[in-house]
Each structure stands twice: as C-alpha cells, then as structure tokens.
C-alpha cells in the first residue's frame, strides 16, 4: 500500500509541476494552528529548512509539546480518499512543531500517540490530531518525492502582472477583493489574451497560453488531457468575453467628452500572420479595435487616451473588405495548421492593397469579428454618403464624386462663378466594368451607349475602388441580398 501511495505522489508531483490547471484544492489542507481551528489564509509559514541527509526515508519519532492555548502549528494534506498519506504541508514559524526543529515539510505522519494513520482519511487524521492532548508523539517519515509539490508556490510567485489596468479611474471601477490563500496567485483576465498553439507548439492539445495585456508576461498552463484543456479553455474564455464587453463600455465612457471621438464597437486580441526577413511566417498577437469608422491595430492594450491616438495600423472601414474566412478542418486535424480559425482583410490605400490575415480562437469569435467588420463597413458607407477625388479627364482637372445613392458624377469648378459644371453622371447600375493599373489610371465602362471613360487619379486608384465595392455591398445588404 505504501508503494502505491508513493507512486501516486510521484504522479501528482508531475501534474503539479507541469499542470498548473490541475485542481489541487481537492487534496484537502487543514491548518492545525489551534485546538482544531482552521485558517486558510495564514501567511506565517516557516521557511523550508535544509533536510539533513541522515533522516531521508527514515522513520522518526518527534515529540511536540503544545504551548498554552496554541496548537501544533502545522498544516496537513492528503488522506486515503486522495490516495496519499497524511503529509505535513506547512510548519508555522514560532509554534510548537517549529520549535522542535525535527519536523519538515514533506514528512508523512504514520501515527499520532501510537494511533496508526497509514490508512486514515483526511478527516480521521484531523480528528486524531485534535484529541492528541498537550504532548504529541508523531511517528513520521520524510518523503523526498513530495517536496517539489509543496514548493509549487515558488513557481506561482513568479507569475507576473498582479496589477489590474482599467480605462477609467480606479474609484469608478474598483471591485471588492477576495482574500487569497497563501498558496494561490491571482492573475487578472481583463483584456489578457487566451490562446493555444501560438508561442508553444502543442500537438497533444493539452496546453493553454495566457498572455498579459501589456505583452510582458505569459503563463503556459498544461492540463492532463485534451478534454480537461477544452473545459478550462471554455470556462476562462467565457469569463474573458464578458470582461471584454465591460471594457467596451468603459473605453466609450473614457471618450464621452471628446466630440469627434469614434464609438468603439469591438475590441480584443487576435493573432496576425507575419513574415520575417527570410520569408518564414508566424503568428503574432495583435490587439484590434473596430470603431464606427476605422480598424485600429495595437501591439498592446491602449489603456490611455494618448495610447488610443497612436495605433500601429489604422484602416478606414469603408475601404476595407473581408476576403476569406476559414473554419476548422474537422476531417483531418493537424494542431496549429488545419484547426485554425482565420479571416483575411484587404484595404485599398494610396500605396496599393494592404492585406492582413488574422486568427481567432473560437467559431463564435470568427462570426463576431467578421460580422462587425462587414456591418461596420456598411454603416460607415451610409454615414459618409459620398467621397470626392481630384482627377484628370480628357486633359481637364475635374472632380469625381462617388455618392452612395446617386452613383458617379464628374464635374469641374468654374473659377469665375464658383459653381460646378457637370460633365457626366451615371447611376451604379449603368456601370458595366471597372479596372485600374494599380498606379494612377482608372477605367470606367458604362456600356456601348456611353463608352469608356479613362481617369487619371493622381495616385493609386485602389481606395476609390474599395469604397465603390463597399457602397455596392451596403446597397445589396440593405435590400436583404448578400454581396
């Protein structure tokens, strides 16, 4: 039986070291600081002493004399129901057990005052310790295998990003803080990035990655199996999605007194496919915001107004369109390859077409991001209504007006009267074909009756072409059709 206990402890140690998400709280811990009192938040544990080599795996009897009105001063874990012996998990500084200098974290308690605890449950061990009296003889044996398990708090202390950022003053967003156990670590989920198979390949699908909102800290969480990993991922992702919705409200409140500020529609982390100097591609975390007018990309979460004003990339929604969206290939899954959920965007700019490929974590995320981008572009089209471009047509300097309702108008301005003279006008339905050279020339063909018009756009025609596509897509959508 003892060998079975040791094998199980070894397995638990492995899980504790590489599986932080394993629910270790089901191995009950009781602090014997007084006459049966339980204290879950005592931080006065004595430092772990260096163990003399002479006592390793040797049975010992240690007499502990309780001080007046005080208990043994130890915490215990384990029990028959956990397939573990009764183990000393903490020794509290200055109390009876600590004063013996003969007890160690990792000692298995074999008996209390000759009452055998080798086959005891956790509750039975607690009761035995409670009724042990003032003088307690503990038969113990140090198990070196369990020491890393009880020192797991060392790795927890290395987990960073304790502070919780907020878009609003702390006084407006402060929530009551729950007291933590001494062996617990609180990691804020608000606008952190939960992902899988990003920085660490995981063919077994057992790990989760949690990255801080400032990109400085990461925590890799490994579960026992893919099923448990999925359960944890879904639970954490659900909470984080709720926090994202709260954050959208907060950031809009931050801009409430700025008249020209655009309303924030959606924010969150994605990964963007990027290529290095040698042409190899990888996925890089990127924070995206969709406003009523633009797509904004940041390297980290922009917590202040100044940071919001300086995105790494900014694209107008009206000149952006979704090019592709792919879901998981269920028939042949290769982790990190065929199981990715992606969508692409293309934006017409003065420098040509700028393309991005983004990756999301769930089908719901994919649906929400693509829906908000498409609907945002359509809403932007109906709000803006028209754009005007300076062009050259048949040697004349003119203006090409693209209007959401009225279509194409070419006009020039009479300098003497300040009025416009219209050269031609065509509704959208007259357009048979459009083409451009990607440099400065735009061709608009309105059919055999009206001919083809060649326009020098004084720059890349792509922005106007993409706006034209958005106008037409928005008009189709308003009629219940899909572009």
Q: Can you offer a commentary on this structure?
A:
- The chain is an alpha+beta fold.
- Helices cover 24% and strands 32% of the residues.
- A 7-stranded antiparallel beta sheet has the order 14-13-12-11-17-16-15. It has a 4-stranded antiparallel beta sheet with strand order 2-7-5-6.
- Helix 9 packs across helix 10.
- The N and C termini lie far apart (70 Å).
Which strand order does the major sheet show?
14-13-12-11-17-16-15
Shape: rod-shaped
Structural class: alpha+beta
What is the gyration radius calculated from CA atoms? 33 Å
Low-confidence regions: 1-28, 35-43, 330-338
- End-to-end Cα distance, whole Å, is 70 Å
Describe the secondary-structure layout.
Blueprint: H1 2-18, E1 29-32, E2 59-65, E3 74-79, E4 84-91, H2 96-100, E5 107-112, E6 115-116, H3 122-130, E7 135-142, H4 147-150, H5 152-157, H6 170-173, E8 193-195, E9 207-211, E10 218-222, H7 226-254, E11 264-275, E12 281-291, E13 294-298, H8 305-308, E14 313-316, E15 320-326, E16 341-349, E17 352-360, H9 363-384, E18 386-393, E19 396-403, E20 407-413, E21 420-426, E22 433-436, E23 441-445, E24 452-456, H10 462-478
Antiparallel strand pairs: 1-3, 2-7, 3-4, 5-6, 5-7, 8-9, 9-10, 11-12, 11-17, 12-13, 13-14, 15-16, 16-17, 18-19, 19-20, 20-21, 22-23, 23-24
Helix pairs in contact: 9-10
């Amino acid at each position: 039986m003892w060998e079975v206990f040791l094998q199980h402890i070894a397995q638990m140690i492995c899980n504790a070291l590489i599986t932080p998400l394993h629910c270790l709280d089901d191995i009950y811990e009781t602090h014997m600081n007084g006459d049966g009192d339980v204290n879950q938040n005592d931080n006065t544990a004595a430092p772990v002493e260096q163990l003399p080599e002479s006592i390793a795996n040797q049975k010992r009897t240690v007499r502990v004399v309780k001080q007046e009105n005080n208990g043994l001063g130890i915490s215990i874990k384990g029990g028959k129901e956990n397939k573990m012996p009764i183990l000393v998990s903490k020794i509290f500084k200055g109390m009876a057990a600590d004063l013996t200098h003969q007890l160690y974290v990792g000692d298995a308690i074999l008996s209390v005052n000759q009452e055998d605890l080798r086959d005891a449950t956790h509750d039975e061990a607690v009761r035995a310790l409670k009724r042990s009296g003032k003088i307690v003889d503990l038969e113990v044996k140090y198990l070196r295998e369990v020491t890393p398990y009880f020192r797991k708090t060392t790795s927890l202390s290395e987990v960073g990003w304790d502070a919780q950022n907020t878009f609003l003053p702390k006084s407006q967003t402060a929530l009551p803080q729950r007291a933590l156990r001494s062996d617990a670590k609180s990691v804020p989920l608000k606008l952190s990035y939960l992902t899988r198979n990003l920085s660490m390949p995981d063919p077994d699908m057992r790990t989760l990655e949690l990255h801080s909102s400032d990109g400085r800290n990461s925590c890799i969480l490994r579960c026992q199996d893919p099923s448990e990993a999925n359960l944890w991922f879904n639970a954490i992702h659900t909470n984080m999605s709720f926090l994202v919705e709260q954050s959208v409200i907060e950031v809009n409140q931050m801009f409430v007194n700025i008249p020209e500020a655009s309303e924030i529609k959606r924010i969150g982390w994605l990964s963007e496919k990027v290529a290095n100097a040698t042409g190899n591609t990888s996925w890089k975390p990127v924070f995206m915001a969709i406003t009523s007018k633009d797509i904004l990309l940041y390297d980290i979460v922009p917590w202040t107004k100044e940071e919001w004003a300086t995105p790494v990339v900014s694209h107008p929604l009206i000149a952006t369109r979704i090019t592709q969206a792919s879901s998981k290939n269920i028939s042949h899954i290769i982790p990190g390859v065929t199981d990715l959920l992606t969508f692409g965007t293309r934006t017409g700019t003065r420098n040509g077409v700028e393309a991005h490929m983004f990756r999301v974590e769930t089908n719901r995320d994919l649906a929400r991001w693509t829906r908000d981008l498409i609907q945002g572009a359509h809403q932007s089209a109906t709000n803006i209504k028209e754009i005007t471009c300076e062009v050259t047509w048949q040697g004349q300097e003119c203006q090409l007006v693209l209007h959401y309702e009225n279509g194409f108008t070419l006009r020039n301005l009479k300098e003497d009267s300040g009025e416009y003279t219209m050269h031609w006008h065509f509704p959208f339905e007259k357009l048979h074909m459009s083409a451009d050279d990607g440099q400065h020339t735009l061709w608009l063909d309105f059919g055999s009756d009206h001919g083809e018009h060649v326009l020098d756009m004084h720059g890349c025609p792509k922005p106007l072409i993409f706006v034209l596509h958005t106008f037409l897509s928005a008009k189709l959508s308003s009629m219940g059709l899909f572009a």
